[in-house]
Amino acid sequence: MTAQQFLRRVVRIQGIILAAALLLSTAGVLTYRWAADRVRETSAVLVDLQSLRSEVLGAESALRGYVITTNDAFLAPYEAAAPNIKALSTRLEERLAPRDDAAFAAITELIRAWRVNFATPVLFDVASGHRDAAVAFMETQAGKRRIDKVQVDLAALSARLRDQENDRQRAADEVGWVSVAGTLLGVVLILGIGGQLRRRLNRRIAGPLEELADVTGRFGSGELTARAGDDGVIEVQRVSAAFNAMAERTQAMVVELMAVDRLKSEFVSVVSHELRTPLTSIRGSLGLLSSGAMGELPSDASEMVAIATSNTDRLVRLINDILDLERIEGGHEALELRMVPVAELLDDAASAVRGAAQTAGVAIEVEAPDIAIEVDGDRMIQAVTNLLGNAVKFSEPGSTVVVDAVVRGHQIALQVRDQGRGIPPDMLEAVFERFQQVDASDAREKGGTGLGLAIVRTIVQRHGGRVEVTSTVGEGSCFSIVLPIMSQAPTEEARADRGGAAVVVLVEDDPDLRLVVGALLGRHGIDVATAETAQEAIERCRTAVPDVLVLDVSLAEGDGYDVVQALRQDDRLRSLPTVVYTAAILSPAQRDRLRLGDTVFVAKGQRDDQALEHEVMALLARIRS
Amino acid sequence: MTDVAARRVVLVDDEDDIRLVARASLERIAGWKVYPASSGAEGVALVRAELPDAVVLDVMMPGMDGPATLAELRADPVTASIPVVFLTAKVQAAERRRLEELGAAGVVAKPFDPMTLATELSTALGWG
User: Is A280 touching B (CB cutoff 8 A)?
Assistant: First the structure.
């Protein structure tokens, strides 16, 4: 069932329950109101019955009093009672009519009988002077008996009505309770269903989606083997399946691309070798010819040979540059980083161009601060040499090229300034592209390959830096290589403070692995501090300043690259010896992004915790020695 | 500058043209004496026969390549102490180091400048 269908069904059920609860509530309310009306009415009837009773009794005693005393004072109450009795009787008849109860009719009949058969004759007797007959009649108790019965009957009727009402009230109460209970039950059910729904949604949607997001993140970080599971509702399963299919294709593509890339590198390497072989003969023979070693050449023949020679040289340089660019850009070769004094760097580069500079009549000045930076020495010298070569090429005889280094905060800028013809503003970006020359004739005249600056940029970018250029046409240019500065490893004092025990920060988001690795290292008496997320890892390193960092690449929050990037900003941690412990396949370019100090890469596998232990101990031994 | 006795080198390369050009360069520009060989095996025999001051050895050759030839020379006590310089079109830094680690005195790149070949070889060999 899809999530949509499921939700629809749940909503329907909840709707039904809600409707039922509402109905019950309404029924309860209506029942109550009806019961209340009934009670009011019955109360009125009971009051009337009570009034009728006292009126009738009053009438009877008034009559008796009049007969015995023949005092007119007793006649008034009797005559006042009569209409009341009539009014009450009529009202009660009306009210009791719906109940279809014969009892009251019998009572009114009794009252009427009393009036007709007793009260009226008695009054007539007294009025016509036969008082003794009236008294005698009265003493037969005939009237009294009738009135007594009326009383009793009225009382009985009242009692019965009251009982009926109590029963009705009880019934109404029950309905009320049922309705309240039903409504509460409905609410509880709805809440319960809601809770169930939430749990189910979590289990079948939110949970699987989070896992899918995690897998996607890991895939994006380079773990090309990451695949999604198949739990969750159909919609999520569909996304998972689609992702897995895409991941398979992408992984296959990446693997193929990497293979193709490698083939290309090998091809370039082989081809350049093949090209160099015949060029050796060409250059050699031309060189010998132009030197006169094979005999003097007529001047125009000599000119031809000179043309051939210089173009051969150009071809050789081009092949060298193409191969260089391919190797550096391809990222197949890792940089060999070591601490190189900046002075040495700049001096070596200056020496490389000194010959050409002398020939061109250009002076070179070197100014270097007394610091060392961590770079691939050969490559960085190559980069500076390229810049210097350009500067010399485009400078007028008699001018000076200055190469120096300026430290700005955590960066160092290696600068080459010339007083040459400058670069127009619209070309400042383009000069770093391959085969871009400011002036089309440059290639021919200045003998450039058009790749020099592209090579410089690639080398510098591999080091995590950038190349900048400022220039004024007619006045000169300044090329800067800006690099982040790596400094010394944590000092001996800092380590001594810890009393000699080695400290390792372990960054790993799998709790089981943390335990296992922590125990492995702890066995050697190492103090292991752990972290699960990138942020935690950075903080842990900053407070503990460990001897070695063991770093997983994919983490719960953030990743290994984030950690390394942040630690590179910290003087004390830039050169932290590191063991990168990951299941991902890392390209050399990715590895460069994970280097701090001495950095080793260990692949996660089934039994590779041993390899990790070995590497950590080896690193620690190297630090200690 | 004192007049040094002409250097004697055995030059091993399977490419005829390169042998010709290199020999012309070393003999005419630098005044060295060059004994050419077109294969590793031929080279070893020539070195044993002539006992030159040095051996200039190509790397990529069919059959016995440069490193194999070097190993052969080092294995023989007669030829073991004769310095060897590799001449190669493979210019990668890693490749150079590998060749140096094999025991060569140095590595010179192809294509070479015929005017400076002798100088480059001399520098690698520690001569003058």
Answer: yes
